[in-house]
Amino acid sequence: MHGLDTELIVAVAASVVLWGVFSARLEALNVSAPIAFVVVGLVLANRPVSAVNVHVHSETLRSLAEVTLALLLFSDAARVNLRVLRHDAGVPLRLLLIGLPLTIALGTAIAVLLFPDLDPWTAAVIAATVAPTDAALGAQVVEDRHVPQRIRRVLNVESGLNDGIATPFVSFFIAGAVADTVAHSTASLDGALGELGIGALVGATVGLGGGVLVTFSTRRGWASPSYRGIGALALALVAYALSIELGGNGFIAAFVGGLAIGTVLPDRERKETLDFDAQAGELLSLVVWFLFGTALVTALDATTWHTAAFAILALTVVRMAPVAVALVGSRLTPMTVAFIGWFGPRGLASVVFGLIAFDSLHGSEAKSVLAAVTLTVLLSVVAHGLTASPLASRYGDHINALARSAAERAPVPALAARPRSIRRASRATAITELDE
User: 155: closest CA among 72, 85, 91, 103?
Assistant: First the structure.
């Protein structure tokens, strides 16, 4: 007898194969990979099929989700070259340093109002967990050439960095919620800050050291190009796991490590080095979306009308109002501000943060957090997936009517593109540059 759940492996592997075969057809119908994998997981885990069985409390589910998020944090951060970004950093910095904190603050206020039985710390956990946007879910818009280069770049940078920036908020709020709700808890706010510091130090050391080592060996012909990507994948795992071993935050380590190596690596070496890491992370993300679908019914068990109201507000007012405030004075048109505000899809980071909060808290607080996060992500996967192409096309018509001097049309330096993904493997033409 095998200890592995072979039924689950067969189901996930077959789903990946079928997605690779039919992905272009499904995407033409605005069915994204997350939508497809959530639906397949939901169908296979429940009656009348009931072919697989996954528990929300599963340590395997949480561990896989955490490693996947670490890889994606590392990969997304590494592609945002800070040296290139500084030439047009105004709008992304507004969204990250003004919009994101305001989103968390407004989300906390609304959660306090809608969930009066929860303490403010737990309400803040919910708000911070659903605040970051997902780079993979936003790829349909980022790769759509109807959207001007500068706006695609803004969305790309924001989604690549805000989950890493949200991590300290989530960790801090969870520590506060646990200290308030669990008797004799060993968690503390000082301990959470210490974990973040250790994570940042480990990530910077691994990222800078690894980047210098890769550059040095490549220039001397020591490194085979086919193994550079594997090395980057290993660096992401080293940063994540070493930080945890030393008592730090693994996600912060992966995020800071990605920023560090992306800044050190020369442009000509970045693509070969980082592509494999991104592809591995995306493959794992498909597995996580499948597992998310299998656990959906259980996760939504505590859903009420308050939960539904919060999820709808989180995707609209809580996201769009702070974006509008952050972009005051940016010279972008109201339609552009609304477009950026709407396309803030919630995804893998929210799922992982929700699982961590669920495991850290107890009783009704844990169930309320999980239900709110799960419903918000589910609505986002469907709503943003179905509206990405149609709204991008309509927005493109709006941009075409603007003058050449419009802020949206300002030229910007190119950032490294994400590699061809599994969901686009069947396309005849690869997107080799995000901003060519």
Answer: 91
- Tokens matching residue 168: 């300290």
First CA to last CA across the chain, in angstroms?
Answer: 53
Query: Which residues touch 428 (CB under 8 Å, ≥6 apart)?
Result: none
pLDDT in tens, 109-136: 999 999 999 999 999 999 999 999 987 7
Rounded to whole angstroms, the Cα distance separating 177 from 120 reads 8
Amino acid at 410: A
Domain ranges of the chain: 6-424
Distance in angstroms (rounded) separating the CA atoms of residues 336 and 316: 15
Distance CA 338, CA 414 (A): 24
Q: How far apart are CA 392 and CA 405, in angstroms?
A: 21
pTM: 0.84
The pLDDT tens digits of the residues spanning 291-323 come to: 888 888 888 888 999 999 999 999 999 999 999
Kindly give, in sequence order, each residue whose CB lies less than 8 Å from that of residue 287, ignoring residues fewer than 6 positions away.
12, 16, 64, 68
- CB atoms closer than 10 angstroms to residue 145: 11
* Placement of tokens 């039924």 in the chain: 7
Give the CA count within 13 Å in the CB-facing half-sphere of 212: 5
Please give the structure tokens belonging to residue 362. 């107890």
CA angle 109, 112, 116 (to 5 degrees): 160
- Those residues whose C-beta lies under 8 Å from the C-beta of residue 413, and which sit 6 or more positions away, are 84, 87, 88, 435
Amino acid identity for residue 371 in this structure: A
pLDDT digits (tens, 9 = 90+) for 362-408: 888 889 999 999 999 999 988 998 888 899 999 999 898 888 888 88
Q: Measuring CA to CA, which residue among 213, 356, 273 is closest to residue 74?
A: 273
Residues 348/285, Cβ–Cβ less than 8 Å: yes
Q: Which two tokens stand for residue 348?
A: 């893998």
The yes or no reply on domain 6-424 and CATH 3.90.550.10 is: no
Tell me the chain's radius of gyration from C-alpha atoms.
Answer: 21
Alpha carbons 404 and 410: distance in angstroms, whole number: 8
